[in-house]
Every structure is written in C-alpha cells, then in structure tokens.
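Appendix C: a fully annotated inverse folding record. The material below is reproduced so that readers can follow the format used throughout the book. The structure is listed first as tokens, followed by the designed sequence.
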C-alpha cells in the first residue's frame, strides 16, 4: 500500500467520512472482532482505490471508540490517555485471546477428563470406595491451581504495556475466574461423550460457538438483563470484561476497586466478575447432576430426582424396607432348586450376603435389534465362600460382574448386597466392595506401595492401621521385592497381583475377581 502515512489526528477524517456515508455502526471497526484484519483491509482498499481517503494498514487503525478523560465517548483516540498501538492491543489483541488462546487448554482438559472415563479409571475408583465428588473436586483443584500460572502470565504481560492504570489483582482475578469457568465448562461438556477425540473436537467447536451471542450485546442499547443473560456464556463474559478494561484504561482510570461498579454501556466490571463466578458454579452443578443421571459409557444411573431423596444425603438408612427385603428373600426361599444344583446347608442359610433376582442386561445393536447379554439370572451368594461363574466366551460372566459392581447399569431385575440395592444404593455398596477387573487400572507413575496406600485410604482405613495393612497385602501377593518399584516397570503377572491386592485392601467384604 503506497501513499503518505496517516497521523492519529487524521483519524477524525475517517470519522467524518463515516458520518457522511451514514453508516449505522458507531464504530469504524468491530470491537475486538475476529474479522478486524479482513475488515480493515477491505476498508483500506475501497477508500484508497476511490481516492476518497488514504488509510494506513489495519494494524494502525483503532478498532473501537473510547472514553476521553472526562468520561465522554469519542472516536478520537488522540484525546484518550492511551497510545494508538496500545489501543490496538487492548481492543483487538484480547479479542483474539478470548477465542483462540483458550481453545487449546479447553481441548486438553476435556480430553483428559474423557480419557479417564474411557479407561474406566473413574468407575474403578468409585468401586473402590472413592466418592465421585472427591474425584471431581480433585480435577477442579488440580486445574484451578495450574490455571494460576497463565492468569499470572497474562496479567504480567499486560501490566507494563496496556493495563497501566488497572489494579493488577482485579485483572488477575478476572483472568483466573474465566479459567475456572473453562474448567467447569469442560467438565459439563465431557459428560456427553465416551470417546476423548470426539469430545475434544466438539468441545472446541462449542467454545467457539459460545462467542456468537456477544455480537448481539455489543451495542450500547443492549439492556443490563440482556448482557447478564448473554454472560452465561463464558466467552461472552470475557469479551464484555475485556472491553470494559479497555475503555477504563482509555479514560485513564483503569479497572480498580473504586471503578468496579462504574456502568459503561449497561455493564460493570463487578457484574462481569459476578457472572464469571455464577457461570463456574452453574456449570459445575450441571456437570455433577448430569454425570449421575445421564451415564455415557460406564457407570450406573441415579434417578432424576435423587437430590430430593433423603437416602442420597443420609446413606446410612437403607431405602429397602424390612418387608421388601423379606419378600425378596422369600422369593428365593420358595423357589425349588433344580436337582442339578447343590443344596445349601442349613447352617449357611443365615449367612446369605448377596441375592440376585431376575438380573437382565440388554444392549442395542447397530441395526436397532436388542441383544440380551444377560437374562433372568438368579443366585444366592454366602459369606466366607468363593463363588465361581463358569461359561463360554460371550456367556455374560463379565457383564454380570460389571452390573453387580456398578460398572454397568442394570436393565431389569435387582441384586441385594448386604441389604443394599444395586439399582438404588450402589454408592453405599462400593464402601464394602473390591473389584479386580479384566484390565489393570494402575498408574505407571506410582509405586506398588503408593497404590495400596491410596486405595486403602479411599476405603477409610485409619492412619494407625494403614502401614500394617499395606505390608500384609504386599506379602499376600508376593510383591515384597517390588514394593517401591514403579507400577509401569512391573511385568504383566505382577500387575495382576497388584490389582488383586488393591481389590482385597480396605477391609472389603465382597471381592469380584474378573
């Protein structure tokens, strides 16, 4: 592009030309829009080709109106207390950041969350007694701490060049709260997917689409309620907040505690920070609820009204009444065992620990047909005995174990484990349950002892008994020589022994070995 460069003062001429053309927009360029460069090039080409006005390259153009030192809106950036290059960073740099920079960590978080679901790690930890809320809180705590680093870096980077008047803690809090929104949003999105690759791709698309409501609230005529509602989308809240910081910086005030409640175009920084906090809590609550009632992949569902039941909040009381339990037991007692079944000694009749009645599991095939993997399984299991399921490949042995351990939801029927229903009280059964699945669920970075200590603590083993119990488990599975070896260095057989020790630990009353 040839021709003399245009000074800052010459921008007034652009504004006059803009008014002469009676453009409906009050901005020369869209504020923080993703099309700023393209739009600026088109404007420059049209004006320079027609000779109407000579414009500089788009990076030298202001991309939004600002406030003068008296708080009045103006198109003259020269009258604002900020250099033109800094204005470009504020108005347009943050626009790119809010849509592109955060997409990469978002996809990584979603992928990590779904990978654990895909590998059944979460379900195995639940089966070993780890509360689901503790697993989720661990994710939030980990990523919340990690997000302190990029939030601090963004604050430091903008400190010397752009945010010269703003309170650095407020700016840091703004970026960090947005990061927490991203983390809980990732948790919410991950609920709907069973494969990590699909979840990360769709998650990035969803995050990009969540920015579009911002286009409808950029005008100063948008009401407070409209902007609050649009701020339920984290990218919109970030965009509004970035615009407020930019305008307050242009006015020479910056965002600080004294200007948090200052209204600009029906928005304030206090409102933005509050909405970021609301978004964080909202998406966390939705993820918690949907993860329990909308099970994608592995796990058992809760009833949709489970938060309103006393049983969920006070699990010490069984939801099955004594009459219900007696009726179920009577059904087994009345059934005459076939002659090919071994009769149960009378001395064991009062030691029945697991009752399975009409247990069924159905799957939908690709062609829509129903496949009956398990049909009407009935059996009694007794304390202090080893019970074996025998059958050919595909007979449903693993499916039955997965239903009894809560890995898969039951299609129909029920099972009672020490008086607790698999259908309705799985979270209580897991406190007394140990599971050794077909696949090894171990972490390569942890040692043998660390695995056993972790799962024993999850089962509620007291600190006084912890070390002695772990020592006993290591001796029982003959892993003394590998006690401090990383699990990733163990052979296949040693990994199976470690998985068996994990299932036996924590005082498990019932142990499933698949």
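Designed amino acids, in order:
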């Amino acid at each position: 592009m040839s021709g003399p460069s245009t000074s800052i003062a010459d921008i007034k001429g652009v504004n006059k030309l803009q008014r002469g053309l009676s453009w409906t927009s009050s901005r020369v360029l869209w504020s923080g829009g993703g099309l700023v460069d393209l739009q600026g090039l088109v404007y420059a080409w049209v004006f320079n080709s027609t000779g109407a006005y000579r414009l500089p390259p788009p990076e030298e153009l202001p991309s939004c109106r600002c406030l003068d030192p008296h708080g009045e809106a103006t198109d003259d950036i020269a009258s604002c207390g900020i250099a033109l290059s800094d204005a470009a960073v504020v108005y347009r740099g943050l626009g790119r950041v809010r849509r592109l920079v955060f997409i990469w960590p978002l996809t990584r978080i979603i992928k990590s969350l779904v990978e654990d679901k895909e590998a059944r790690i979460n379900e195995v930890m639940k089966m070993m007694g780890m509360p689901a809320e503790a697993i989720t809180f661990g994710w939030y705590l980990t990523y919340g701490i990690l997000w302190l680093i990029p939030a601090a870096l963004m604050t430091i980077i903008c400190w010397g060049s752009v945010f010269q008047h703003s309170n650095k803690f407020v700016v840091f809090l703004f970026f960090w709260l947005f990061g927490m929104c991203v983390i809980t949003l990732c948790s919410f999105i991950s609920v709907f997917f069973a494969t990590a690759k699909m979840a990360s791709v769709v998650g990035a698309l969803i995050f990009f689409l969540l920015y579009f409501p911002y286009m409808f609230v950029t005008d100063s005529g948008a009401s407070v309620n409209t902007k609050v509602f649009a701020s339920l989308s984290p990218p919109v809240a970030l965009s509004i907040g970035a615009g407020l910081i930019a305008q307050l910086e242009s006015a020479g005030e910056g965002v600080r505690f004294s200007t948090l409640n200052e209204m600009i175009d029906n928005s304030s920084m206090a409102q933005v920070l509050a909405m970021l906090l609301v978004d964080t809590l909202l998406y966390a609550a939705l993820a918690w609820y949907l993860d329990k009632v909308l099970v994608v992949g592995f796990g058992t569902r809760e009833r949709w009204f489970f938060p309103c039941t006393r049983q969920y909040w006070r699990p010490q009381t069984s939801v099955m009444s004594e009459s219900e339990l007696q009726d179920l037991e009577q059904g087994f007692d009345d059934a005459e065992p076939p002659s090919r079944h071994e009769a149960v000694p009378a001395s064991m009749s009062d030691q029945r620990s697991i009752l399975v009645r009409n247990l069924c599991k159905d799957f939908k095939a690709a062609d829509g047909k129903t496949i009956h993997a398990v049909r009407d399984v009935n059996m009694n299991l007794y304390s202090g005995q080893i019970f074996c399921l025998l059958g050919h490949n595909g007979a449903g042995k693993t499916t039955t174990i997965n239903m009894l351990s809560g890995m898969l939801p039951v299609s129909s029927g029920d099972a009672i484990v020490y008086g607790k229903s698999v259908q309705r009280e799985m979270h209580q059964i897991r406190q007394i349950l140990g599971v050794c699945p077909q696949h090894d669920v171990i972490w390569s970075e942890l040692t043998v002892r660390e695995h056993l200590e972790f799962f024993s603590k999850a089962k509620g083993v007291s600190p006084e008994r912890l070390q002695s119990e772990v020592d006993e488990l290591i001796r029982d599975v003959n892993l003394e020589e590998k006690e401090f070896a990383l699990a990733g260095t163990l052979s296949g057989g040693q990994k199976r022994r470690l998985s068996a020790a994990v299932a036996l630990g924590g005082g498990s009353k019932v142990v499933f070995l698949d």
